[in-house]
DNA sequence: TGGCATAAAGTTACCGTTAACGCAACGATC
DNA sequence: GATCGTTGCGTTAACGGTAACTTTATGCCA
C-alpha cells in the first residue's frame, strides 16, 4: 500500500522564510537567532522569537540534518518490548539522551533476523548520530551496515562475544552458572531449563550454556531442556512445567528463562501438588516487578537495567565526542527468595 | 553540552551520486531504480542494485523527506514505559505500521507536561506523517502545535474528553465505576483508592471519579484516597496500604490504580494478617502478566492494548489517506479473580 | 521512408536549513 | 585621520534526493 500526504497545496507549515519575511530580515538571520543567538541583536531576536511563537514555527530537521553535519537521532533497536524486558533500559536511555538533545528512534525486531536487517537499514537511513542495539550477535549484513555507517554503535545487554564498537552489558553465561551453582548449593541435583527461547535469542542460549557447564562441573546429570519458540508468558510456563514433570518426574529444580515463565511454572507446581521449595526449586531471570509478590516469592537474577540505559547514554555521548571504544561491564545480582531456599 | 560529529572529512557514506558514478549513469536513474524500478532497464537495474549492495548504500531519508512530499515517520508519545503499561500498545502499533513502511519515533514524557511540549515539538520537527499520543488531555500549547502540524493526530488510551482529531481508547470513568460496582456487589462497603497518581495522569483521575460516583450512587460513605506522586511499584503499594489501614482500619476494599501497586497491597495485607478476600477485597487495573499468578490471584481490569495498537495503526493509515476523523471505542474487561470473591 | 508513440535515460529546479563568505557601519587605536 | 578589528546582517552555495520536464533511441505502422 502506498501512502502519500493528501494534498500538498493545503499544507502550509511555516518555514524560516515565513518568519524572515514577517520580520523583514534574511532567512539566515532567523536561522542564526536559533543556532547562535548572540550574533543577533537582542531587539531583533525578540521580534523573531515572537514571530516564531505566533506562527507556531517548528524547525524542519530534515532540512537541518541534511544541511548541517550533525544529527540528533539515536537509533535504538530492541528485540522485544513485552514484559518490561527492555522497557526500563529504553526509559533511562531516553531520558539520559534527552539532556544532550538526542532523540530516540525506536525499532523492535521481535527476535526476527530479517526484521533486524530491515529495521537497521531503516534507522540508518535517518543518518542517526549513533545506534544502540540489543545484543552482540547480529546477522553479518547487519554488522556490515552498522560498521559502514561510520557512527558509534553501542551494543547493549550482552558482552559475551565479538563487539562491533562499544558494549554495555554482562556475560549471560555467568548468569546461567550462578543460577546453577545456587541451586546446587541448596542441594538440588536434577536440574531442568524451561522457557521461551527464540531462535535468535542468543542471550538465552548463553545462559543455558552457563547452566549446563556448571552442572557438568558439579558432576550432575545433563540438564533437561524443555523450551518453546513462542513468546514467554505464565501460560507457557505452566504448560512447559506440566509437560516436563510428566516426562521427567525426577526433576527437583527448574531454571526459567524469564520470571514471567517462572510465574506459570509456580502455578503448575501448585496444581501438581509439588511443594516449592521443598520438593522443587525454581529460579527465574529478569527480576520482574512481581517476582517478590508471588508466593513463594521468586529467586531470580536482577540485571541492572537502569545502569545499562545510563551507561549506554554515556557511551553514546563519549563516542560521539571521539572517545575510544570500550566495553562496560554491568553488574547483576542473584536475588535469593523463597522459591529456592529450603 | 554540544555534540558534533567528529570530523566531516572522515565520513564517507555512499550517496546516489556514488552509485551513479560507479555504474556510469545519472543520479536520477539510480533514484528511479529505487522508486520506480520498471522505468529502468532490467540489466541496468541489476548493475545499480549490485553497486548499492557492494557499497552498502543506505538511502538518506533526510534528503528524501525534504525533497519528496511524503514522510514515513510516525511520532509516538507515551507517558510511561514502565511495567508494560504501554509497551504492548507500542509493540503492536509498531509492527502494524511496519507493514505500511512507517517508522516509529518514540518519546516518553514520564507524565511531565513540560517534557510533553518539548518532545512533541521535537517530534514535529521531523515532519512526521502522523502522531499518536497517549491521552486526550494535553497542555494548550501542545494541542495548538499538533493542530498546526496539519497531520493526522491519534489520541490513544482515553476517549473521555475533547479530541484533537481521532481517538482510540476507552472511558476511564466507566472503568472506575465498574470496579466500584463489582466491589459493592461482593458486599464490600468501605472503599479506598490507593496508588501512584501523577499530576498529569488524567486517566487515573478519571477512574477515581468513576469510582467515587458509583460509591455515591450506592449510598456508601466517601472513598478514602491515599495516593503518591512517585511511580507505581509493589513497594509503594505496600507502604500506602499499611498507612491507609493504620488510619482507616474500617476499610474493607481497596481499588488500586495499577496491578503493580496492588501486588504490594496484597503483601501488606498478608503481613498485617488481613485475609483477602474475606476481610478485605482488592481490585487492580491493567492486567499485569503476573496478576493471575499472585495469591490470592488479583481481580483487575484488562484494557485491550493489542487492539488499541492495531486500531491506532489503522486510524493512522486511514487518516493519511484522507478518511474522516473518528473515535474508536476499545473494549475492556473486568477480570474477576480470587482477591474480590468471598 | 516518414511520422509518431513509447521507452529509457538525462537536465534542471527545488525542498528548508546551515556554513562560509562578504560587506557595511562603527568604535578603538596609533 | 587612515587602519583595523568587531558587530550585525545579507548572499550564495551546498546537503542528497525527487519530480517535472526534456532529450534521445527504438519500434511500429501506414
From TrEMBL, chains A, B:
Superkingdom of source: Bacteria
SUPFAM superfamilies attached to this UniProt entry: lambda repressor-like DNA-binding domains, Periplasmic binding protein-like I
Cross-referenced Pfam families: LacI, Peripla_BP_3
InterPro entries in alphabetical order: HTH_LacI, LacI/GalR-like_sensor, Lambda_DNA-bd_dom_sf, Peripla_BP_I
Residue ranges of every copy of the HTH lacI-type domain listed in the record: 14-68
Matches recorded under CDD domains: HTH_LacI (cd01392), PBP1_GntR (cd01575)
Protein name: HTH-type transcriptional regulator GntR
Species per Swiss-Prot/TrEMBL record: Neorhizobium galegae bv. officinalis bv. officinalis str. HAMBI 1141
